[in-house]
Amino acid sequence: MKKFLLALAGAAGVLFSAPALAETVNCTAITAVPVTITAQGVYCLKKNIVTAITSGAAITIAASNVTIDFNEFKLGGLASGAATQAVGVYALNRKNITLRNGNIRGFNAGVYLDQNTADGSAGHVVEDNLIDGSTQVALSIAGSGIAIRRNRIVNTDSTPPAGALSAPSGYGASGIATARPGTVASLPNVGAPQAGTGAVVNGVYANDLIDSEITNNFISNSISPSQSYAIVLDAPSNVVVARNTILETLGASYAAGIWSYDAIGPVIAQENVFSSVVATEAWGIIAYTGPFLCVDNIVTGAATQTDGCTFEQGTVPTP
């Protein structure tokens, strides 16, 4: 019996232990950048790669049906400096691109999957990446059938520490947010933005997103001396934005955890958590025109929890 129990325990360990991250090895290795991918297939990183390019893209995808597994290695652009206009990964009018397991750091735009024709971009999956230190937008994506999930998007910051900015309206001389009409009173430890390029920043910018999801992402420290948004939806239709954690979205004039405008079809914002959305005008969720459903979201540390929801249920605290 003892031997049987030991054998059963061993089998259980095999059955129920969490698998380690499997490295993609059957792939075409990307060994240096800038590089252009012109054929469909599976590509990967097998080492950290850094670049000092200040424009263009480190990786350009010029084919559809391309998967890049970064294998937890870094694609780094910090050497380009705070004024960089370079993109980490770029594609235009492509379909079925998958980007996973990356550490994409220090670009003006970390990932930019764009379209300039109807139905030009579709089927993309961006998952399990760390996109860190982008200076304008971490992830910009357009098209239909898109899945953006389980990414960590941190320190999207148009204000690199090149000297303190004069405190904007609503901030104390120390840079700590103070009470002001129409905004949350005295959020502790929230500093004024630093001096920098001053661009509007977006954690995720989704343009013409159709039949898509933005789910289970962690977005923190989106900072600008002008406007800051964690997730922007431009003309979405049939989009689910769910179970995202959004912390420290800081701007001088405007800031929002989720900002949607011109929705064509329904958008569902469900079970998202927002904390510390700070600006002269700040919202957890704001929607301009179109059907927008707000269900079971938690919004704290924002002047206005929600604005523009065509249906709202279960917002905590209650508006």
UniProtKB/TrEMBL annotation:
Coiled coil: none annotated. InterPro entries: PbH1 (IPR006626), Pectin_lyas_fold (IPR012334), Pectin_lyase_fold/virulence (IPR011050). SUPFAM superfamilies: Pectin lyase-like. Keywords: Signal. The keyword Transmembrane helix does not apply. Residues 1-22 form the signal peptide. This is Right-handed parallel beta-helix repeat-containing protein.
